[in-house]
Amino acid sequence: MLEVGVKTDNKGHVVVDKYQNTTNPSILCIGDAAGKFLLTPVAIAAGRRLSHRLFNNESSNYLPYENIATVVFSHPLVGTVGLTEDEAIERYGRDQIMLYKSKFNPMYHAVTKHKEPCVMKLVCAGPEEK
């Protein structure tokens, strides 16, 4: 990669901007090689945005990675989407952030003896609390 002027990070992923441009203006990179959300649907979505930029004259079309849901299939399950609390504070300022937390038993366990609580944290920003 270095021979063609493409920079990689310390994990070997190709360094790209939000439009999949590398440090070599004639080389673009999407998917796992770019090291962002190593998921097939994400690579497909990034590829579609790239094709729209290249062939549909949509120069500002890119994939906003902050809205991609992820899950860890562990016990208990962990799922996330959007900005973390720290990222939201950095972007919008602490006074613009509202936090909501809840703990409940999911419907999945409603009729079983096994009651596994679910913990939810919702980070909202701005007057619309989006």
What's the arrangement of secondary structure elements?
Blueprint: H1 40-55, E1 70-72, E2 78-80, H2 85-92, E3 97-104, E4 118-125
Antiparallel strand pairs: 1-2, 3-4
Compact overview of the structure:
With 130 residues, this protein is an alpha+beta fold. It has 2 helices and 4 strands.
Characterize the structure shown.
The chain is of the alpha+beta class and 130 residues long. The chain has 2 domains: 2-65, no CATH class; 69-125, FAD/NAD-linked reductase, C-terminal dimerisation domain (Enolase-like, domain 1, 2-Layer Sandwich), CATH 3.30.390.30. The protein has 2 helices and 4 strands; from the N terminus they run αββαββ. The chain has helices at 40-55, 85-92, and strands spanning 70-72, 78-80, 97-104, 118-125. The strands form 2 sheets. Strands 1-2 form a two-stranded antiparallel sheet. The chain is elongated. The model has no long low-confidence stretch (mean pLDDT 92).
Keywords:
alpha+beta; Enolase-like, domain 1; 2 helices; disulfide bond; Pyr_nucl-diS_OxRdtase_dimer; two-stranded antiparallel ribbon; FAD/NAD-bd_sf; flavin adenine dinucleotide binding
